[in-house]
Design goal:
The structure holds two protein chains of two kinds. Chain A has no helices and eleven strands. By secondary structure, chain A is mostly beta strands. In chain A, β7 and β8 form a beta hairpin. The N and C termini of chain A lie far apart (32 Å). By secondary structure, chain B is mainly beta. In chain B, a hairpin with a 7-residue loop joins β9 and β10. Chain B is globular, with a radius of gyration of 13 Å. The model of chain B has no long low-confidence stretch (mean pLDDT 95). The chains are: A mainly beta, B mainly beta. Chains A and B meet through β5 and β10 of A and β4, β5 and β10 of B.
């Protein structure tokens, strides 16, 4: 499968612990996105990268969240001092090019449960 | 920011019948409207999209219509099949990176 790859697929952690998710986009896609999805809701935009530059962060991304995309390839999303409200599925996506209408391809997500 | 509302939240149809899902958006600058299908535990997958310079687009059994004046767009699935059962999300954007999604419609096709 040459689609967007995410790991781990599932993570259960205790409140206060740090977690990190990894995303490998489709090869040569210059844009990479992170979205969050809770049960019964559509995905919500968190942040995106064009190559290695993080160009926008949603207000949903508190100071406890940090995302990186070193060298413009894979990306990591780290959540520090997790809270129960962080429980959600974290979706990574990627696309090629700029301009409206470029297809955004999603990964299968990383489920986070904070207990 | 953009606000997208989607109706209905659940839809049950008999196999072979049509299904229609409607979305409204708030930002008149929105110009790209994709629809994603998400099966349980799977990734959202793009099934069809439409740009603001087009009023209707069709791909086999799936069609999307856009009314820019009223700021609403709809997904039409004809001759529904059991494999059409999934959650469908509409989305809108006025830029090229931030999609605003509706809350989703769970479609169940009864055999």
């Amino acid at each position: 499968d040459t689609g967007v790859s995410q790991n781990p697929r599932h993570k259960i952690t205790k409140r206060g612990q740090n977690v990190t998710f990894r995303c490998d986009p489709i090869s040569e896609h210059n844009r990479l996105y992170w979205y969050r999805q809770t049960l019964g809701q559509g995905p919500e935009f968190l942040t995106y990268f064009q190559n290695e530059a993080q160009l926008e962060k949603s207000r949903l991304l508190s100071d406890r969240f940090s995302a990186e995309r070193p060298k413009g390839s894979f990306s990591t999303l780290e959540i520090q001092r997790t809270e129960q409200g962080d429980s959600a599925m974290y979706l990574c996506a990627s696309s090629w090019g700029t301009g409206v209408g470029n297809t955004i391809y999603f990964g299968e997500g990383s489920w986070l449960t904070v207990v | 920011g953009e606000n997208v509302e989607q109706h209905p939240s659940t839809l049950s149809v008999q196999e072979g019948d049509s299904a229609v899902i409607k979305c409204t958006y708030s930002d008149s600058a929105s110009n790209y409207f994709p629809w994603y299908k998400q099966e349980l535990g799977k990734r959202p997958q793009l099934i069809i999209d439409i740009r603001s310079n087009v009023g209707e687009k069709k791909d086999q059994r799936i069609a999307v219509t856009l009314n820019k004046t009223a700021k609403h767009f709809s997904l039409h699935i004809t001759e529904t099949q059991p494999e059409d059962s999934a959650v469908y999300f509409c989305a809108a954007t006025s830029n090229d990176y931030k999609l605003s999604f509706g809350a989703g419609t769970t479609v169940t096709v009864r055999a």
